[in-house]
Amino acid sequence: MHVSTTTRRSGDREYTATLLRRSYCQDGKVKKETLANLSHLPPAAIDAIRRVLAGETLMGVEDAFEIERSLPAGHVNAAIAMARRLELPKLLDRSPSRERDLCLAMILGRVICPGSKLGMVRTLGQSTLASELGVEGADEDDLYLAMDWLLERQNVVEDRLARRHLVDGEMVLYDVSSSYFEGRTCPLAKLGYSRDGKRGLPQIIYGLLCDRDGRPVAVEVFTGELHDDKTLPAQITKLKDRFGLSRIVVVADRGMVTAANITLLSETDGVDWITALKAPTIKKLVRSGVFQPSLFDEQNLGEITDVEEFPGERLIVCRNPLVGALRARKREELLAATETDLALIKARVDNRTLQGADQIGLAVGPAVKRYRMRKHFQITITDTTFTYARDSAAIAAEAALDGFYLLRTSLTEADLDAGDVVRAYKNLEQAERAFGSLKGPDLQIRPIHHRLEDRVRAHVLICTLAYYLTWHLKAAWKPLLFTDEDRPVNPDPVAKAVRSPAAQQKAQTKRTPTEQPAHSYRTLLAELATQTRNTTRLHAHASTFEKLTQPTELQAKALELAAHAPVVVTP
User: What is the DSSP string of 80-129?
Assistant: First the structure.
């Protein structure tokens, strides 16, 4: 039997017929018989019949191909694309090396799947990251040696970042945070004020220098007991001497700029600052009459001067009624909670189950310290009695300052007007966002398990470089995230920041303007991870081939943005 296709023309029309026929011999003659008309069948079916009659063995696609392994690839490709856009490999070292590839793998691994170095070894084998960077088979020892290599190059890396993002006159954000240790053998690990709420665990302090947009430029690790203000002098030296900046404006938190640091800043040529006053200093200004809160009932921004205490500086008064209402409500809640605890103690004294002034005092002390409300209560203790009452005068004095904060700066009005000074100080939130990513689910810098001092420093540097990559990924993916793409500048610098109508629409509908689902940064990475690279084997063959799954519309857009979104790498 065989398949025969014939074509005949009738006038201007052409007819094609496909027939299943057989040939046989009868009375010494070869004859042919039509068994079926196959013309109505699709071409694929006709081809299959022809191949079967020719002796071929046919099988389904699922039998012809076998997928040996499927690895998440989309998030890796996006991170690598952005790393190449940022020239991150060259940032680490101009010359290719295995150490450079391993450090790049640790940075990218921290972005796509943060975890310990042991977890990093698993991450390399659980995605396409190892094969894309050519670091298959790397173990923990290889990663530790690469960390040592990277730490030796930290100054070079930071110098290159500074050349990219800092110029003379640049506004530099500086803030510090802490992360706790698991273990006690590292020389850097000391007990101190824990921002993680881990009072019984040792910690490290690290200071982060960022440009005005929040991109990290340099990081330095300090021992865990060091006060914030003690970290600032090293940063001024770094900015002036290492980075070679002749003029800078340092924006730092109020706890950073002490009298000694102000003296240092004032005596350093080309250095100005923007910071805020602490609450005791504000109260002192009120008592002296320099600052009168009642003058700001109808305005929320103004300037005052105090030539004796702050010579050559501007003091900018800001009043935010929303913050004031929040503080008043919180204070009332804390007062009520403290009264609840004190009432229990009074009941014990009245029932004579607690007596003696010393014993009553031991019970009252923790109760008033718990919510830091001791200053707002008048307490009387004898051997047999205990009374307490709110100190109305103290509460009223504090309430009068609700919503107020005072900024201090060495910049003149010609350098920066009052509104822009406020905006510059508020921009310090960019550094706080960096700590949020470093310590949160994005990068998981904590807890720290390393024991050697240099390994701890290298770990913090890797996390900082991972945030540098994360910052740019978030910026590139703004159209796909809930992030405000075009945040409007509020004409009132003191008022609460506002979101653009487009961002509000995304928040309400949970969709982008192109009707794609809006994502958070982590959920978009998870969505990209569903694009896999499949290793496939042909039936009855030893050879294999690899192929990426077809990206969804969202994945294709995210990959395109990561590879082609504008990236500013020079000032």
Answer: HHHHHHTTHHHHH-SS--HHHHHHHHHHHHHHHS---HHHHHHHHHSSSH
Beta strands in 114-238 (DSSP E): 170-180, 203-210, 216-223
Would you report the helix, strand and coil content of the chain in percent, each value rounded to 5?
Answer: 45, 20, 35
* Residue 554 belongs to some domain of the structure: no
Identity of the residue numbered 197: G
Strands 314-319 and 404-409: antiparallel
Convert 18-59 into a string of H (helix), E (strand) and C (coil).
EEEEEEEEECCEEEEEEEEECCCCCHHHHHHHHHHHCCCCCC
Number of domains in the chain: 2
3-59 confidence digits (pLDDT tens) = 888 888 877 788 788 888 888 888 778 888 888 888 888 888 888 888 888 877 665
Q: pLDDT by residue (tens digit) across 253-267? A: 988 888 888 888 888
Backbone dihedral region for residue 431 (phi beyond 0: left; psi -120 to 50: alpha; all else: beta): alpha
Domain end (from 345, 366, 399) = 399
Q: Is residue 125 part of a domain?
A: no
- Judged on CB neighbours under 10 Å (0-12, 13-18, 19+), 180 is buried
CA–CA distance, 436 with 155 (Å, rounded to integer): 25
3-state SS of 454-499 is HHHHHHHHHHHHHHHHHHHHHHHCHHHECCCCCCCCCCCCCCCCCC
- How many CB atoms are located within 10 Å of the residue 194 CB? 16
Helices 321-350 and 357-370: angle between axes, nearest 10 degrees: 160
pLDDT for res 61: 59
Q: Does the residue 8 lie in any domain?
A: yes
Domain holding 342, by residue range, is 323-399
Interval 116-168: pLDDT, tens: 877 888 888 889 999 999 999 899 999 999 999 999 999 999 999 999 999 99
pLDDT at 464 over 60: yes
If you search the block for the tokens 């830091």, which residue do you land on?
372
Tell me how far apart the alpha carbons of residues 125 and 146 are, in angstroms, rounded to a whole number: 18
Tally DSSP H helices, then E strands, for the chain.
21, 16
* The length of the chain, given as a count of residues: 571
Edge-to-edge order in the sheet of strand 29-37: 2-10, 13-26, 29-37
Tokens of 53: 């009659």
Among the candidates 58, 82, 103, a domain finishes at 58
Q: What is the pTM of this model?
A: 0.84
- Helix 140-152 vs helix 117-125: crossing angle, to nearest 10: 110
What the block records as the tokens of 305 is 């001067």
Residue 98, classified by CB atoms within 10 Å of its CB into exposed (0-12), middle (13-18) or buried (19+), is middle
- Answer whether residue 361 is part of any domain: yes
